[in-house]
Specification:
It is a single chain. This protein has about 290 residues and is of the alpha/beta class. It has nine helices and ten strands. The chain has helices at about 5-40, 45-60, 65-75, 75-85, 100-110, 130-140, 155-165, 170-180, 240-250; strands spanning about 120-125, 145-155, 165-170, 190-195, 200, 210-215, 225-230, 255-260, 275-280, 285-290. Strands 6-2-1-7-8-10-9 form a seven-stranded mixed β-sheet. A three-stranded antiparallel β-sheet has the order 3-5-4. The chain is globular and about 75 Å long.
């Protein structure tokens, strides 16, 4: 390599490093502005995932830099709401990971039968598919009448869809397959009515559901629960925020309460690993013991 080529290579590396540093500053300023002005705290989310979604939104809003996006977000409430929806893109389905729901039926439901009253919290419930799945499972096990399901998310648009219980009919084939693999005992179509290109779930499934906005990063515990589901939410958090949320769940669970995490998550290597025993290592089901 000639000296001029070497100098060009070094200059290119310095430029790339400078651009990465500037991008990091812009992201931090955007997140700080959102937290201080709107009260939503993304500052301890994992940067790689946030970065992709922020740049996607930069292009969607027709601006060229993250700083320009920050200006628009702070001065246009509608832009902020679009960004929040983008940063919390819902990825869910009915009876997602059917083996988990089958294991829950077999291993956790017998424990719940001993309770006079059951409180379940679905934290980060997205558009509600998991919540309706739980209602159906509890109904089939004869436990729904003595249960209350609390479904929370920071995304108001997702919550509204969850409240309505209306979903795309194209997804029912996959949902039916999941339901059967999860130990469903009836015809899945009994639980919804088809209308045009959508289905609406039966009203009785919503009878014992409570939907509310809740931000795991900033909001506190609001009840004591026998079961907490929080699946594939904390994979977007850094270690500090992950430990904070585990503290929130530990505070919110009753003694011998059940914590259900996502397939890529674990209670191990957190500050609360000693507070739980493992009921199912594969399906990430834990029981609070202290």
């Amino acid at each position: 390599m000639s000296s001029s080529d070497h100098m060009e290579s070094e200059q290119r590396l310095l430029t790339e490093e400078s651009e990465r540093e500037l991008e990091q500053i812009e992201i931090e300023l955007l997140l700080e502005g959102i937290h201080r002005f709107y009260g939503y705290d993304f500052r301890n989310y994992a940067i790689p995932s946030l970065r992709r979604r922020i740049w996607h939104h930069v292009h969607a809003e027709g601006v060229s830099t993250i700083s320009a996006l920050q200006d628009k977000v702070l001065h246009e409430r509608s832009c902020f709401e679009r960004l929040i929806y983008n940063l919390s893109i819902p990825v869910t389905e009915m009876f997602r990971d059917p083996k988990l729901f089958l294991t829950f039926r077999q291993s956790v439901v017998p424990l719940l039968r001993t309770y006079p009253y059951i409180r379940i919290w679905h934290a980060g419930c997205s558009t509600g598919e998991e919540v309706y799945s739980m209602a159906i499972l509890l109904h089939e096990e004869g436990l729904y009448e003595k249960s209350r399901i609390y479904a929370t998310d920071m995304n108001s648009r997702s919550l509204q869809q969850a409240k309505e219980g209306v979903f795309d009919i194209k997804r029912m084939k996959q949902y039916t397959k999941n339901y059967m693999e999860a130990g469903g005992t009836r015809s899945f179509s009994e639980y919804y009515t088809a209308k045009y290109n959508s289905v609406i779930f039966q009203p009785f499934l919503k009878k014992n559901m409570i939907f509310a906005e809740h931000n795991l990063a900033t909001d506190r515990s609001f009840n004591e629960f026998n079961v907490i589901f929080c699946r594939n939410v904390m994979i977007y958090f850094n270690d500090q925020l992950r430990d904070h949320v585990h503290g929130l769940f530990h505070e919110s669970l009753s003694h011998f309460g059940i914590l259900v995490l996502g397939s890529k998550e674990s209670i191990h290597f957190t500050n609360y690993s000693e507070a739980y025993e493992t009921l199912d290592r594969v399906e990430k089901i834990y029981r609070k013991i202290k």
